[in-house]
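Handoff note, outgoing to incoming analyst
You'll be picking up this chain. Sequence as last confirmed:
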Amino acid sequence: MDAGNVDARPVGIDELLERVRAGYSRMEPREAYEATEAGEALLVDIRYAALRERDGLIPGALVVERNELEWRLDPQGSHRAPEATSHDLLVVVICNEGYASSLAAESLRRLGLHRATDLVGGFQAWRAEGLPVTAGAQAQG
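Most recent structure output, in case you need it:
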């Protein structure tokens, strides 16, 4: 047994989420909506296509698949989205229920996007709050 690895125990996902979330303030849906309306925040929807089609989209949110997130949001990256203008950008990551988005926000923070955060409760909380949603391709009918 390596004596230098005595404290290197596996961390469960619940503990990891708790540690990650302790490092920044998360946003409530209404707060994120107001920040976006004021032009102070960029909403980034990382839900997979089937969920977007089923449940709809948040108007104005940048849709980026999770596996492309860091490449699209890195202001120094060669594959960055036009919206990724600065490391000072307030990015609010949105997943379906607010779990995967916490890990994604932490990843963006490691890239230097020090204001990256996520939405408490994810898209489902946004919709439950009665905030704007447009129908997805298969959500109509």
